[in-house]
Amino acid sequence: MTVGSLRRYFLAFVLAFLAALAALLLGQKLRAGDNHESRLHAVLHEELDLDPGQEAQIDRIEHDFAERRKLLDGRLRQANAQLAQAMEREHAYGPAVEKAVDQSHMAMGELQKATLQHVFAMRSVLRPDQARRFDAAVAHALTAPPEE
After folding, report:
1. pTM for this predicted structure
2. What are phi and psi of 144, to 5 degrees?
3. Where are the domains of the chain?
4. Checking phi first, is residue 2 left (phi over 0); if not, alpha (psi -120 to 50) or beta?
5. pLDDT (tens digit, 9 = 90+) per residue, 11-56?
6. Would you say domain 3-143 falls under CATH 2.30.22.10?
């Protein structure tokens, strides 16, 4: 094996490790409820003047999503554990690491899709004037710098 090949394997290993670390940190941030998520929740429950029917519908939507999220968080943790095991076994960017990275990405994607479905489900309960304010809060949550 040449030095160039070793460098490529090492770089791939480092990138896989960083991807796993990023996924772990993202999962922790989502579970902890970051500033943007808290702000979105505050806009929904404190600033949109929801009527009792809307509150009840959104409570149901949030309850259902909390259950779905537990399942998806578990899949993400499992995928990250498999990635860690594959990295320990192969000590290189081999087939098991690549497969585990793909599984981790799939789990992250499922969580992201479920989160978006949750946001749209809540939005569907809102009146047009409320939806405009909610949309602005969602756009801000997606585009604001992390330190805000």
Report:
1. 0.68
2. -70, 145
3. 3-143
4. beta
5. 666 566 555 555 555 554 544 445 556 777 788 888 898 999 999 9
6. no
